[in-house]
Amino acid sequence: MQRREAIKSIAQYMGLAAVGGLIWSAYAKETKASLALYPPGARENFAQSCIRCGMCVQACPYYTLRLSGSKINDQAPYGLPIFTPREIPCFMCEDIPCAVICPTDALDLSLLARPNTQLPRKIKNSQEAIKFLDIAQAKMGVAVIDTKGCIAYAGIQCDACYRACPLIDKAIYIDYRPNTRTGKHALLLPMINNDLCTGCGKCERACVTEIASVRIQRRESVLGKMGTNYIKGWDREDENRLKDAKIPQGAKKENKQQTLDYLNSEDF
């Protein structure tokens, strides 16, 4: 009887371990999928919508893309097109052949469309792709700088990532600051514009430190998001809405201008 109970307990524990393993493997796959860098135009649910045909990998002229699973440390489920910027970055092809050739909507061309452009039902050639698509609209990831490892932040002049950026002075720009440590040399600090960075990874590839001090990360894993209850900046539309705002009945007209002056003053 004791032996039977022992065998029964072992079987139960093995069953629990198997179920736990399945749950953990599903979690690990989801975690890996959120860390991998995908081709331009990849949707949020790319890991689920990609059919793993490999056509985008074959279309890439720079061998940037490869199918995941070929390396032990791949941070994606098997068979997905991914790239490692430190090895081969995205070269920002104007005709974006990897996205155009995708047979499904896993690589969504609408995410790469030029502003105020109506996409045709089917892009037939590279000329049409250049006309309707803009690789600068890609959001493959975003560059993040480790200020402790970056030699520019240590006071050594370096602009390798800045020079490598295809959107120079836009996605990466230089912030000039006085060097309080020496009092003689200026600090030339690379800064990232999150809104314009495409995540191509050329900066990571060009970084001169032993381990890259600027790395491309998935945008959703590193960027914050304001709530709708916050107003960011001021634009012309806000000003026009104020101009067209109705003055309450019985209020004097000069009160509107006084209110605007007060809101725009330093005392507010």
From the alpha-carbon coordinates, what is the Rg to the nearest angstrom? 26 Å
Tell me the helix content.
25-40%
Average pLDDT rating:
84
> pLDDT under 50 segments (min length 5)?
19-32
Across the major sheet, the strand order is 1-2
The largest pleated sheet is described as:
2 strands, antiparallel
Order of helices and strands: HHHEEHHEHEEHEHHH
CATH class of the domain at 36-137: Alpha Beta
Query: Count the helices. How many?
Result: 10
Q: From the coordinates shown, what is the CATH architecture of the domain at 36-137?
A: 2-Layer Sandwich
DSSP summary, beta strand count? 6
Q: What is the general shape?
A: extended
Q: Proportion of β residues?
A: 5-15%
CATH topology of the domain at 36-137: Alpha-Beta Plaits
Kindly name the structural category: alpha+beta
Straight-line N-to-C gap = 82 Å
